[in-house]
Amino acid sequence: MTSSRTSTAAQEWISHDPDPQTAAELASLSEEELDERFARPLMFGTAGLRGPLRGGPNGMNLAVVLRTTWAVAKVLTDHGLAGKHVGSGGTPRTVPRTSPSPQQKSLPPKALR
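Predicted structure:
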Protein backbone atom coordinates (compact mmCIF):
# COMPACT_ATOMS: atom_id res chain seq x y z
CA MET A 1 0.00 0.00 0.00
CA THR A 2 1.35 3.41 -0.96
CA SER A 3 2.07 5.60 2.02
CA SER A 4 0.87 9.19 2.02
CA ARG A 5 4.57 10.17 1.96
CA THR A 6 5.14 8.18 -1.25
CA SER A 7 1.94 9.50 -2.76
CA THR A 8 2.93 13.11 -1.98
CA ALA A 9 6.46 12.56 -3.35
CA ALA A 10 5.06 10.97 -6.51
CA GLN A 11 2.60 13.79 -7.14
CA GLU A 12 5.35 16.38 -6.54
CA TRP A 13 7.69 14.55 -8.93
CA ILE A 14 5.01 14.23 -11.62
CA SER A 15 4.08 17.90 -11.40
CA HIS A 16 7.71 18.96 -11.95
CA ASP A 17 8.83 16.25 -14.38
CA PRO A 18 10.22 17.99 -17.51
CA ASP A 19 9.34 14.96 -19.66
CA PRO A 20 5.62 14.46 -20.24
CA GLN A 21 6.19 10.80 -21.16
CA THR A 22 7.75 9.84 -17.83
CA ALA A 23 5.20 11.96 -15.96
CA ALA A 24 2.40 10.05 -17.68
CA GLU A 25 4.19 6.75 -17.03
CA LEU A 26 4.35 7.50 -13.29
CA ALA A 27 0.72 8.64 -13.19
CA SER A 28 -0.36 5.27 -14.59
CA LEU A 29 1.53 3.08 -12.07
CA SER A 30 -0.02 1.00 -9.33
CA GLU A 31 0.58 1.81 -5.66
CA GLU A 32 3.10 -1.02 -5.39
CA GLU A 33 5.04 0.19 -8.42
CA LEU A 34 5.14 3.76 -7.04
CA ASP A 35 6.43 2.44 -3.71
CA GLU A 36 9.29 0.73 -5.55
CA ARG A 37 10.11 3.76 -7.73
CA PHE A 38 10.21 6.13 -4.76
CA ALA A 39 11.85 3.81 -2.21
CA ARG A 40 15.32 5.29 -2.83
CA PRO A 41 17.05 7.57 -5.33
CA LEU A 42 19.32 6.33 -8.08
CA MET A 43 22.90 6.26 -6.81
CA PHE A 44 26.27 6.91 -8.38
CA GLY A 45 28.31 3.76 -8.85
CA THR A 46 31.82 3.08 -10.07
CA ALA A 47 30.69 3.70 -13.65
CA GLY A 48 28.65 6.80 -12.89
CA LEU A 49 24.89 7.11 -12.78
CA ARG A 50 23.17 4.03 -14.17
CA GLY A 51 19.76 2.52 -13.91
CA PRO A 52 16.74 1.33 -15.85
CA LEU A 53 15.20 3.80 -18.29
CA ARG A 54 12.01 4.80 -16.49
CA GLY A 55 10.32 7.61 -14.61
CA GLY A 56 10.89 8.43 -10.97
CA PRO A 57 13.89 9.10 -8.76
CA ASN A 58 15.42 5.63 -9.09
CA GLY A 59 15.43 5.45 -12.89
CA MET A 60 17.40 7.07 -15.68
CA ASN A 61 15.29 9.88 -17.04
CA LEU A 62 15.53 13.56 -17.91
CA ALA A 63 14.54 14.77 -14.43
CA VAL A 64 17.27 12.68 -12.74
CA VAL A 65 19.92 13.73 -15.27
CA LEU A 66 19.07 17.43 -14.87
CA ARG A 67 19.08 17.25 -11.07
CA THR A 68 22.38 15.35 -11.06
CA THR A 69 23.96 17.80 -13.52
CA TRP A 70 22.89 20.72 -11.34
CA ALA A 71 24.35 19.03 -8.24
CA VAL A 72 27.68 18.35 -9.96
CA ALA A 73 27.85 21.97 -11.14
CA LYS A 74 27.14 23.17 -7.58
CA VAL A 75 29.89 21.00 -6.10
CA LEU A 76 32.39 22.18 -8.72
CA THR A 77 31.45 25.80 -8.13
CA ASP A 78 31.63 25.40 -4.34
CA HIS A 79 35.14 23.96 -4.72
CA GLY A 80 36.40 26.87 -6.80
CA LEU A 81 36.30 25.02 -10.10
CA ALA A 82 33.82 27.32 -11.87
CA GLY A 83 34.75 27.90 -15.49
CA LYS A 84 36.67 24.64 -15.84
CA HIS A 85 35.91 22.10 -18.53
CA VAL A 86 33.30 19.50 -17.68
CA GLY A 87 33.10 16.11 -19.36
CA SER A 88 30.05 13.92 -19.34
CA GLY A 89 29.19 10.60 -20.87
CA GLY A 90 25.91 9.41 -22.16
CA THR A 91 24.12 6.61 -23.85
CA PRO A 92 22.43 6.49 -27.23
CA ARG A 93 19.61 4.40 -25.72
CA THR A 94 17.06 7.19 -26.06
CA VAL A 95 18.91 10.20 -27.50
CA PRO A 96 20.46 9.94 -30.97
CA ARG A 97 24.20 10.64 -30.96
CA THR A 98 23.67 13.68 -33.19
CA SER A 99 21.54 15.38 -30.53
CA PRO A 100 23.04 17.29 -27.58
CA SER A 101 22.74 15.37 -24.33
CA PRO A 102 20.56 16.68 -21.51
CA GLN A 103 23.79 17.48 -19.65
CA GLN A 104 25.05 19.57 -22.57
CA LYS A 105 21.73 21.37 -22.78
CA SER A 106 21.57 22.11 -19.05
CA LEU A 107 25.26 22.84 -18.50
CA PRO A 108 26.54 25.01 -21.36
CA PRO A 109 30.28 25.88 -21.35
CA LYS A 110 29.77 29.23 -19.61
CA ALA A 111 27.37 27.85 -16.96
CA LEU A 112 30.11 27.48 -14.36
CA ARG A 113 31.80 30.80 -15.01
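Summary: The two ends are 47 Å apart (CA to CA).
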